[in-house]
From TrEMBL, chain A:
The protein's role, per its UniProt record: Key component of the proton channel; it plays a direct role in the translocation of protons across the membrane.
Keyword field: ATP synthesis, Cell membrane, CF(0), Hydrogen ion transport, Ion transport, Membrane, Transmembrane, Transmembrane helix, Transport
This protein's name: ATP synthase subunit a
Chief place where the protein resides: membrane
InterPro entries for this protein: ATP_synth_F0_asu (IPR000568), ATP_synth_F0_asu_AS (IPR023011), ATP_synth_F0_asu_bact/mt (IPR045083), F0_ATP_A_sf (IPR035908)
Signal peptide: none
Residue ranges of the TM segments: 34-52, 87-111, 117-138, 188-214, 220-245
Organism, as annotated: Belnapia arida
UniProtKB/TrEMBL annotation, chain B:
Pfam families membership: ATPase_gene1 (PF09527)
Key words, A-Z: Membrane, Transmembrane, Transmembrane helix
Residue spans of biased composition, Basic and acidic residues class: 1-28
Residues passing through the membrane, by range: 38-59, 71-90
Region (Disordered): 1-33
Name of the molecule in the record: AtpZ/AtpI family protein
Superkingdom in the source lineage: Bacteria
Lineage: Bacteria, Pseudomonadati, Pseudomonadota, Alphaproteobacteria, Acetobacterales
InterPro entries in the cross-refs: ATPase_put
Length: 252, 98
């Protein structure tokens, strides 16, 4: 697939194919959905097994589960304050789902479901709806004062309010595009350099094999970088959700 | 103060001394580290507000049949919102604990 002809085919890795042939086709179940289920299963298994033993001195699995918990707990309470604990399960679920989606996608033969804007936008829209509902539930109609900063001159209202509303509506778009673009860019780069390895390696005998080491080394570095990006994007998604929740709870 | 509280307190002091307990998130509004991360973040914020502004303008134009005036108006509003997004990125609204 990689080096058919001489073209670099970096985008076919994002194509959706039915999972398990005709069976998946009949219920429109793609490999993307299968990986989501896998991520869900792995997260559940990690949290169930990791917390089952409840040792005072945690083993490896328990330490992993606990550090994940405490990491997100720190983000939520740090941004939203003590009232934020109510929203911890929501932010934790989102964080783990994005993190596992990004990480599973780095394994060979795996598919990155966070590289599809449909998936990331669905997540971002969920965050947007939850945040808006939380703000409306806490503040009622007072929520709409969010769109007009205190102390601004009344004459500027026709100018400020549309701009504030557009800024508010742009949140799910920036949230989803950031995750989606980072994942796509990373995987395209990996594929391009991997194709270079095959192209150079098969080109000119021994000299080609020596030359192929260069893109290979680049790819090794890129995989390390992608692990960083996978974690960082999940972190950014979680912290932005917390920041939006802070705005919803405190309204200024 | 019972023994356990005393232990917790001494543990906390020891951890702070060793710099293990960092004060919670000191990053500005979740800004990613590194110039590339910040640049990408700024670009996405600017473009996404512009996209929303243009989208609203086009939809209202189609609904009210005022092509192309509302599109032009909301294009400018979207650009302003994008720049405000970036301003907020570096100077968050007051009252946010960071």
């Amino acid at each position: 697939m990689a080096a058919e002809g001489k073209a670099i085919d970096a985008l076919s890795q994002f194509e959706l194919v039915p999972f398990m042939g005709a069976l998946g086709e009949s219920v429109r179940f793609s490999q993307s959905n299968a990986h989501m289920l896998l991520a869900f299963g792995l997260i559940t298994a990690l949290m169930m097994w990791g917390t089952a033993k409840r040792s005072i001195v945690p083993g490896r699995l328990q330490a992993l589960a606990e550090s994940g918990y405490e990491f997100v707990h720190g983000i939520v309470t740090g941004q939203v304050g003590d009232q934020g604990k109510r929203y911890f399960p929501f932010v934790f679920s989102i964080f783990m789902f994005v993190l596992f989606g990004n990480m599973i996608g780095l394994l060979p033969y795996a598919f990155t479901f966070t590289s599809h804007i449909a998936v990331t936008f669905a997540l971002a829209a969920l965050v947007f709806v939850v945040v808006t509902v939380v703000a409306l539930a806490i503040h009622g109609t007072h929520f709409f004062s969010y769109f007009f900063p205190e102390g601004a001159p009344k004459a500027l209202a026709p100018l400020i309010i549309p701009i504030e509303i557009i800024s508010y509506l742009s949140r799910p778009i920036s949230l989803s595009v950031r995750l989606f673009a980072n994942m796509v860019a990373g995987h395209v780069m990996l594929k391009v350099f991997a194709t270079f390895v095959v192209m150079i390696g098969s080109a000119a005998g021994v000299l080609g094999l020596i030359g192929a080491v260069l893109p290979m080394a680049m790819n090794v570095a890129l995989v390390g970088f992608e692990i960083l990006v996978a974690f960082l994007q999940a972190y950014v998604f979680a912290i932005l959700t917390s920041i939006y929740l802070h705005d919803a709870v405190h309204l200024h | 103060m019972n023994e356990r509280d005393d232990f917790e307190r001494r543990l906390r002091e020891a951890r702070t001394r060793q710099g293990l307990d960092k004060p919670a998130e000191d990053a500005k509004g979740g800004l990613p580290p590194g110039p590339m991360g910040i640049g990408f973040r700024v670009g996405v914020e600017l473009v996404s507000a512009l996209v929303v502004g243009v989208g609203i303008g086009l939809l209202l134009d189609r609904w009210l049949g005022t092509k192309p005036w509302l599109f032009l108006l909301f294009f400018v509003a979207g650009a302003a919102a994008g720049i405000m997004n970036i301003y907020r990125l570096f100077n968050p609204r007051s009252g946010r604990k960071i």
